Amino acid sequence: MKKNLFRVIGVMSGTSLDGIDLVDVTFEFEEKWRYTIHHSETVKYPETWYQTLKHLVTFSEVQLREIDADYTEFLAHIIQRFISKNHINGIDAVCSHGHTAKHEPAKGYTYQIGNLSMLSKKLKQTVVCDFRAQDVALGGQGAPLVPIGDKLLFSDYTFCLNLGGFANISFENEGERIAYDICPVNSVLNHYANRLGFEYDNEGSMASKGSVDDLLLKRLNDLDFYALPFPKSLGIEWVNSEILPRINKMDLPVEIVLRTFTEHITDQISEVLNTTTGATVLITGGGAYHTFLIDRLREKTSNQLHIPNSDLVEFKEALIFGFLGVLKLRDEVNCLKSVTGASKNHSSGKIFTP
Ligand SMILES: Nc1ncnc2c1ncn2[C@@H]1O[C@H](COP(=O)(O)OP(=O)(O)OP(=O)(O)O)[C@@H](O)[C@H]1O
Ligand SMILES: CC(=O)N[C@H]1[C@@H]2OC[C@@H](O2)[C@@H](O)[C@@H]1O[C@H](C)C(=O)O
């Protein structure tokens, strides 16, 4: 019989570079998967690492290999500190995403740093990592990988909605998991909040003071991307070429931009949610703390919006990378072809032992 109780450390470094998310979690399988979070922490990047990671796409292959070794060592230090500080004993594995340095699935290429076997040696723990490469080798996008976790851990919800740099959603459609990006969220809101010297628009207080500019709202809602069928995804390049110039040429006060963009986000998200009635929606990612946005969304949908505790809002991705590692240890599918477009469902990731 397969082992059905695992305690692992899930580790994730996301696109916003706000830090390394760590979660100490137990997964148990009995008819269905359940999880219990014991400890969680985000370790902010020191300025030098922040600057290095921000510029990774410009690095040569040789430079990346050097950075990879340094980053793996840094990650080992952060994970070891988390384990020691919380007196964590008897874990089965550290399951780590690393940090995406380059991602060009169309060229069959994806590279996450921090996934060297050295991590296992330094930690003296089994490590499961490098979850995206095999999917890309199988012709998939190598992303998103979180939806299998949505399917197996959060099936009580009709929709799993994450409000990070972009809003992305996953749900069952004709017996298959579907996932795609809906529209930008914090990648745009932060850009304008920064103009007034703020990291972000706390709880949407600035947006709530502005009024909607109808012309800008229409120009945003009319963008071609929104009419495309799924699967589809967005990147910062699209924000830079399609969104920011449209907003900037109207020369509006920041409060009006933030208010209008919040209206745009809630228009786009509610359109997706309102394809169903009586649905439940799990909302995670930092955008769940933008109370003005959430209030506007509640006004536009009768579906039930659920914002969980902060552990789940902030650590769902780290938790799910922990879960992908557990599935890999059980040699079970952790990448869905319906989501990534790979030639088959498969069990992805490398296992290193010390
Ligand atoms: N109190 C708050 N009020 C409004 N917005 C907030 C608040 N707290 C966090 N946020 C927003 O959430 C962002 C961080 O969210 P998150 O960590 O989910 O983003 P991310 O890592 O870029 O996501 P992803 O990598 O999934 O795109 C912040 O940059 C900010 O825009
Ligand atoms: C290549 C890569 O690192 N992609 C990330 C990124 O950050 C958000 C979005 O783009 C998502 O596609 C993915 O991460 C999430 C956690 C995922 O794989 O589900």
TrEMBL record:
Transferase recorded as keyword: yes
Enzyme nomenclature, EC number: 2.7.1.170
Kinase in keyword set: yes
Gene3D superfamilies: 3.30.420.40
InterPro entries in the record: Anhydro_N_Ac-Mur_kinase, ATPase_NBD
First-tier enzyme category under EC: transferase
Protein name (database record): Anhydro-N-acetylmuramic acid kinase
Keywords of the record: Kinase, Transferase
Tree of life domain: Bacteria
One of the record's GO molecular function terms: kinase activity
